[in-house]
């Protein structure tokens, strides 16, 4: 019994619909994946530096915790590709067990629920970013970096994820109705 996805299912489910918006989003995603990967590697270097300095030099680094959190939040909130792969896996496995009509309704409800949640999260992130910029909010730590940095990463990441889910919904509606 195989527990992975069939190659045919993976290719079909992971393939973008091919419209202009999908191609632009794919190009943005390529850049974001590189930047996110660099942020996660930088966070690992910051944490490694902190451990070495604290252990060998007995020197306190209070900025490193917050810096690594900013880098990890930025790297993870902008990295949508793994979320998409998880969704493809989840969607494909349930396809085998449900009748096609029930599965279609389930997919529509899941897509709309995901879109609603991500759009709300993106909207709230943009309002937090606006407040942080207008009010000049800074972190309460001794380092005190401006909070617009993590809020902007969350806002951009969730907005891109919302756009990707919206395109997935549009593609699903077109595919189910026979338009595209």
Describe, in plain words, how this protein is organized in 3D.
There is one protein chain. The protein is mostly helical. It has six helices and no strands. It has helices at 7-14, 20-56, 63-77, 81-95, 100-135, 148-177. The two termini are 34 Å apart. Mean pLDDT is 77; it is low at 1-16.
Quantity of strands, as a count? 0
Q: What gross morphology would you assign?
A: elongated
Mean pLDDT: 77
Structural class of the helix and strand makeup? mainly alpha
Q: What is the helix/strand order?
A: HHHHHH
Q: How much of the residues is beta strand, in percent?
A: under 5%
Q: Rg, please?
A: 20 Å
Q: Uncertain regions: pLDDT < 50 for 5+ in a row?
A: 1-16
The number of helices is 6
Q: What level of helicity do the residues show? A: over 70%
Largest sheet report = none
Span of the ends, CA to CA: 34 Å
Brief descriptors of the model:
180 residues; mainly alpha
In brief:
The chain is an all-alpha fold.
